[in-house]
Amino acid sequence: MYIIRPNLSEEETATIIERVGTFVTNLGGQVHEVNQTSPWGRRRLAYPIENNQDGYYVLSYVSVDPKVARDLERNIKYTDDVLRHMLIKPYE
User: Fold this and answer.
1) Which of 56, 59, 76, 86 has CB 3.0 to 4.6 Å from 35, enough for a Cys bridge?
2) Any idea what DSSP says for residue 37?
């Protein structure tokens, strides 16, 4: 899951989502599903992040080798328009 700046246009938001998908595929992973609609999407943040009261939430289901998960996090972290991100391992 990651939160994108709310002041971006739909095209810019789609570009960020595509960029994160490209990070995954470049590391040998696969994007299974991207959920950017209700109940996610644009929501009020619990606290301001970089003077933003709202954020655009995107939930992506991906599979990557655990050895490259740190590289994926680093790539997402240095994307300026991503406010926060979190990678988790699902229950099996």
Assistant:
1) 59
2) S
How many structural domains compose the chain?
A: 1
Give the residue carrying structure tokens 């700046």. 5
User: How do the pLDDT tens digits run along the chain, 92 residues long?
Assistant: 999 999 999 999 999 999 999 999 999 999 999 987 656 788 999 999 999 999 999 999 999 999 999 999 999 999 999 999 999 888 76
Residues 52-74 as b/e (b if ≥16 CB within 10 A, e otherwise) read eeebbbbebebebeeebeeebee
Assign residue 15 the CATH number of its domain.
3.30.70.60
User: pTM, whole model, 2 decimals?
Assistant: 0.88
90 part of a folded domain: no
* Torsion sign over Cα 41, 47, 48, 50: negative
Asked if residue 92 is part of any domain, the answer here is no
**91 part of a folded domain:** no
